[in-house]
Structures are given as structure tokens and as C-alpha cells.
Amino acid sequence: MSTTIDSIKNITVIGAGAMGRQIAMTAALAGYQTTVQDISQDMLDAASAEMSGWVESRVAKGKLEQSTADAALANLAWETDLERAAANADFVIEAATERLDIKRGIFESLGSLAPSHAILATNSSTLGSSKVAEDSARAEQVCNMHFFNPALVMKCVEVVRHESTSDNTVDVTMELARRMGKEPVVINREIPGFIANRVMGAINKESLFLYENGYASKEDIDAAIRNGLGHPMGPLSSWTWWAWTSSTSSLRPPTRKPEPRRTSPTSPSPSSWPRASSAASPVQVSTSTRSRSSAP
Ligand SMILES: NC(=O)c1ccc[n+]([C@@H]2O[C@H](COP(=O)([O-])OP(=O)(O)OC[C@H]3O[C@@H](n4cnc5c(N)ncnc54)[C@H](O)[C@@H]3O)[C@@H](O)[C@H]2O)c1
User: Which atom of ligand 1 is nearest to the CA of 246?
Assistant: First the structure.
């Protein structure tokens, strides 16, 4: 079944955690009637309070009109019952706990609870939507719609198609992301880590290799990447490391801090990641690269 971007009025976000609440607020600010569903009333209450506080502070700083803030808050509804939350959904963004069994259960329920035209997207950082598509019984209307943390701020959204995702699903998801103020990219085939986290992992890996083998200090590696590649932070700074690892739990590298002068490089990328052909040797990064570090 195909749908059009203009027919999307109601968005349901599943999970009111760190990501779900900000994705919901982003959708509400873009004018969508947005229902946030979570099994935990406490999480819904915390999310509602945090988002109200966020818009208030934006208004106080003069970065948001009071009328826009009021309209966005009025667009939001909070719900523990999935049946009620999904009943009128034109588009669902699942941002529940990163566990396959939980997500499979949600997609199976959505298959019968959400209207048949609804697109079902998962915000998972590590689980390709192929893992839940069949459960939904509408595999062609399923894809990843991967926001970055904090979702209210970060522009990138990775739209990842699995083998059966229809062109219509990709087109509508991309346009929805644009209407939410994002700059989406398409990933044509599932690959763990998608684009940004995968590239971040390669940079982290090489940085660790250089540090652990005594080629340079942490500070100098970070400085080279900040000042040579234009990233806002170096990969060995604690913030960047935390952000990368916290968003990619099942891709998480060893949690220990790197120790100096080890003889063999450790790989923060999980062994299950398909490797680039040159992955065994240090990554060659052009000095003209100007990518900014978009920690998820
Ligand atoms: N945290 C990040 O930096 C980040 C970045 C990008 C994507 N993601 C992805 O977003 C998703 C959510 O991550 P998060 O950091 O917001 O997690 P979180 O732990 O902050 O929130 C998860 C929420 O899901 C709820 N939940 C659990 N089971 C549920 C169910 N059956 N139905 C409805 N709600 C349920 C929990 O009560 C909780 O409020 C994950 O798939 C993760 O991979 C996270």
C-alpha cells in the first residue's frame, strides 16, 4: 500500500526515553499531531515535563515564539496504551528500548493495531528493520528512521531500507524527515552502524591504535582531528566516546580506557561488522575531509 506525504497528519512515537521524547517534540514543532506511547507512566510524565521545560527555555531565550511553543505542546498527547496510540497513526516511529524481543513485539502489535496505510519506522541504531519487518506483516512499509542524539538539535536522519522496503516508504520517510527540519540520507542496504556511527567507529579505532601504540598522546590525536579535520571534538575526549558508545550498545567497544603502548591494536568495532577492504590497515582519511563529528 502506498501513502503520500501530505496524507500524514498523525505521528505515533513509541518510547518516551532520551530519543522518543525529542523525536516527538520535533514532530510536534513541525505541526504533526503526535502521540507518544510508553509502557511506563513515569517515563511519559518525565518526558512531558522535560519537553515543556525545553520549550519554555527556548521561549525565554527568544529562540521560539510563544505561539509556536503553545501549538507544539498542544500537538502532543501521552499514552500508555498502544492500541489507542496506534489507532489513528499515519506514521509510527518506534524508539523503545534497544532489545530485539521488545521491538519484535511492538512491530507485531502494530501490524494489527496501526491503520494499514501507516509506515512503521524504527529509530534503532543497531537493529536493521529487516529484523522486525516480517513481524509487522507489512514489510514493504518498514524501514529504519535513525535520528541522532539530541534529536531536537542534530540534523542528520539516516533512512535505511531493507530488502523489501518500497520506494514509496523511503520517499515518504525522507520527505517527512525534511518537514521535521532534518537533512536525511538514504542507506540502500542494511549495514551495521549505518553511515555516521560506522565512520565514527573507524576514526575511534584508528585513534585508539595510534594512542595505544605510542604514536601520539590523546591530546595530540584529538587536536589533530579537531584542527586538521574540522571535527568539533577529538575522538578520545570523554564526551565523544560516551556519545558513541551509549548510542550503539550492541556495537560497543571494550569499555576499558585505552592503555598506552600495547603491541596489537584493539578494535572498538565489533567483529560482526563487515569490514572495508582496507580495514586491516590504518584508515586513510583525506586531509581535505571536512566532516563534522556528529556524535549520535
Ligand atoms: N540514546 C541514543 O543516543 C540513541 C541515538 C540514536 C538512536 N537510538 C535508538 O533509540 C531507541 C531508544 O533509545 P533511548 O536512548 O531513547 O532509550 P531509553 O532507554 O532512554 O528509552 C526507551 C524507552 O522505551 C520504553 N519501552 C520499553 N519497552 C517498551 C514497549 N514495549 N513499548 C513502549 N515503550 C517501551 C521504556 O520505558 C523507555 O522509556 C533505541 O532503539 C536506540 O538504539 C538511541
Answer: 3
Is the C-beta atom of 234 inside 6 A of ligand 1? no
Give strand ranges (E) for the chain. Answer: 10-14, 33-37, 76-79, 91-94, 119-122, 142-147, 156-160, 183-187
Candidate list 140, 158, 190, 206, residue with the active-site label: 158
Q: Are 241 and 235 within 8 A, CB to CB?
A: yes
Structure confidence by residue, pLDDT tens digits, 232-264? 999 998 655 555 555 554 444 444 444 444 433
Helix 41-60 / helix 66-74 crossing angle, nearest 10 deg: 170
- Is any ligand 1 atom within 6 A of the Cβ of residue 46? no
- 197 belongs to the catalytic site: yes
CA 52/CA 180 separation, integer angstroms = 19
Evaluate whether 186 touches 159 at the Cβ level (below 8 Å).
Answer: yes
C-beta 102 within 6 A of ligand 1: yes
Q: Which of 197, 207, 237, 293 is catalytic?
A: 197
Nearest CA to ligand 1 atom 9: 124
| Residues 249 and 126: beta-carbon distance below 8 Å | yes
For 260-287, b where at least 16 C-beta lie within 10 A, e where not — what string? eeeeeeebbbeeebeeeeeeeeeeeeee
How does pLDDT run across 13-52, given as a tens digit for each residue?
999 999 999 999 999 999 999 999 999 999 999 999 999 9
Please tell me the distance from the alpha carbon of residue 229 to that of residue 207, in angstroms, as a whole number: 13
Q: Which string of DSSP letters, residue by residue, matches 170-233?
A: HHHHHHHHHHTT-EEEEESS--TTTTHHHHHHHHHHHHHHHHHTTSS-HHHHHHHHHHHH--SS
Atom of ligand 1 nearest to the CA of 106: 31
